[in-house]
């Protein structure tokens, strides 16, 4: 058994919640958002380009931005996704992720224990007729071939709300957890960052992140490379 602080916490916990952000997927070749080399760096109005207003008023601008910046269909899960997935399959963890890249699901996570809080870029539908389409269809044309409606991914844009079912599942998992692991997130985007407030009072909180983030007063900060940390975690 590898003796690391993270491994020790995960080994002894019975009900784990992983709260994950874009930093979990950088090792898979997908840029994060707010680091100096992230998606938002040196970009004008990124929040507008990913907003409901942009989708409605300038759908072509919205489409071109998403197509150029957010889709990485060849990206593969890394060791962080894989180790977290193993804990869900062992019925010991729930993953609540900000990520819309689908990599937690690709890693084989138990889908009943995966909350894609902001949706998934690869779930797409026509706003006019409601029919679903593949991402390959979407990347070829923003208009639905059948009815001419504008296609969109089923993700939460700026100005849009979180789906109630996802919120309920997240809050239930947090209320029952004895360990909450925050990983790869700046933890400044709400309502996701506010989820930590709904954890069980008895739950331990640990963050694995390259940069120090704000945690509850009793939280444990492991500052470093999450890939290296999770590589040393024993399978459940």
From TrEMBL:
A Pfam family matched in the record: SIR2
Domain of life where this protein originates: Bacteria
Domain Deacetylase sirtuin-type: 1-236
InterPro entries: DHS-like_NAD/FAD-binding_dom, NAD-dep_sirtuin_deacylases, Sirtuin, Sirtuin_cat_small_dom_sf, Ssirtuin_cat_dom
Top enzyme category: transferase
GO molecular function, one term: histone deacetylase activity, NAD-dependent
Keyword Disulfide bond carried by entry: no
Keyword terms, alphabetized: NAD, Transferase
EC number from the UniProt entry: 2.3.1.286
PROSITE patterns named in the record: SIRTUIN
PANTHER family xref list: NAD-DEPENDENT PROTEIN DEACYLASE (PTHR11085:SF4), NAD-DEPENDENT PROTEIN DEACYLASE SIRTUIN-5, MITOCHONDRIAL-RELATED (PTHR11085)
The protein's name in its UniProt record: protein acetyllysine N-acetyltransferase
